[in-house]
Design brief:
Oligomer: single chain
Distance between the termini: 42 Å
Shape: globular
CATH architecture: Alpha-Beta Complex
Number of domains: 1
Strand order of the largest sheet: 6-3-8-7
CATH topology: Nucleoside Triphosphate Pyrophosphohydrolase
Largest sheet: 4 strands, mixed
CATH superfamily: Nucleoside Triphosphate Pyrophosphohydrolase
CATH class: Alpha Beta
Strand content: 35-45%
Radius of gyration: 16 Å
Order of helices and strands: EEHEEEEHEEEHH
Length: about 180
């Protein structure tokens, strides 16, 4: 059973924990991580969520994502999720915290309420897709996409992508400001 630390809507920890299923049923604020993988060709790795996922099954999204478990810190969670979802062994120094973002959504006809404070990381690394060991419960497929192509999909409100508008905007702003290849 997985427990989450609870937070208020402003990101202040409440010193309470709750089971994952109850958190999503009740809409409690909790913490999560997103990790973007950027290769030297200026391409971002995308994952397609497994069809059995509670929220946004079968849609494309960030390279790797997951919840921060009870008493776990953000970077430890990011490292754990990269191992669990993609089979990657990484070190803390390989992850750069880009920004924090609030994300809220309601799916499954109101049965799944997700209110998250997310830490969004970037990992610059050339990884061959064939090297990845995908967890089929989490990820059905991965692919690389050029930053400008992803930006176009998001601007076009492409329904095959998980709707994380604010996070995508901040990512594109960061990549543009720091000269990621197109």
């Amino acid at each position: 059973m997985e427990y989450f630390d609870l937070y208020d809507k402003n990101g202040k920890q409440l010193n309470q924990t709750k089971l994952r299923a109850e958190v999503h049923k009740d809409g409690d604020w909790h913490m999560a991580v997103d990790i973007w993988i950027l290769n030297n060709r200026g391409e971002l790795l995308l994952q397609k969520r497994a069809k059995k996922k509670e929220s946004f099954p079968g849609l494309w999204e960030v390279s790797c994502s997951g919840h921060i478990s009870e008493r776990e810190d953000s970077k430890t969670s990011a490292i754990r999720e990269l191992k669990e979802e993609l089979g990657l062994d990484v070190e803390e120094r390989g992850l750069k915290l880009l920004f924090k973002v609030k994300d809220s959504c309601v799916t499954n006809k109101g049965k799944f309420v997700n209110n998250e404070h997310k830490d969004v990381y970037l990992m610059k690394k050339d990884i061959e897709i064939k090297e990845l060991k995908l967890d089929p419960e989490e990820v059905s497929e991965v692919k690389y996409i050029k930053v400008e192509d992803l930006k176009q999909h998001i601007e076009d409100s492409d329904k095959t992508f998980v709707p994380h508008e604010e996070s995508y905007k901040k990512l594109f702003d960061y990549l543009e400001a720091y000269g990621a290849k197109k």
